[in-house]
Amino acid sequence: MVNRPVESVSLLAVSKTFPAEAVLDFARLGQTAFGENYLQEAEDKITQLADTPECPTLTWHFIGPVQSNKTKSIASLFAWVHSVDRLKIAQRLSSQRPAELAPLNILLQVNTSGEASKSGLNPAEVEEVASTVAKLPNLSLRGLMTIPNPDHREEDLQHEFLMCKSLMDKLNQTGLHLDTLSMGMSQDLETAIACGSTCVRVGTALFGKRDYSNR
Question: Membrane-spanning residues where (predicted)?
């Protein structure tokens, strides 16, 4: 058991590959934050649900890899982006965020596992990038995100999560005011919460097994 207040951790329902109707089912139960990985799919869902009278105001989070040619749409459609892995992407999101919208909430993705194939900033460059991103207009730097190696042992998962937590603590000591650690998914959320996560990204445990055959 982790002795933390329930309100200290938010649930992000990861609805990628599931239809708008599935989102609406959870929205009717009071869930308002949803995460999407694929831009076109997300755009269709967001548009479809925008005019649903019984649907509460939803907050959409982009959690997939951000390609340069898609930053304009992401900056317009989403309230949060969890997967900013380089300064160039942050700069494009900043310049393309519509002026009439609130600042875009940004999380820097950190490659805590050290895998060459995985997106994310090297932990050693996080402080410099965060300092620059925090000064960009139209963005609000809120914290960090990581995706650990799912094949790691429990102690290795803890090491990765605690590394991300330590990085955010150090950034706050430099004068930043970060409040969000996006860590933990269906299979490792308990460990992530024990290590300080403030937002868990849960899909399979809520929606069921995904079918990627049409992608």
Answer: none
Burial of 138 (0-12, 13-18, 19+ CB in 10 A): middle
> Does this model's pTM top 0.85?
yes
pLDDT in tens, 99-131: 999 999 999 999 998 888 788 999 999 999 999
Looking only at the bridges linking them, the beta strands covering 10-14 and 199-202 are: parallel
| Cβ atoms of 139 and 103 closer than 8 Å | yes
Write out the H or E segment, with its range, that includes residue 33: strand 33-36
Domains parsed from the chain with CATH numbers: 6-207 (3.20.20.10)
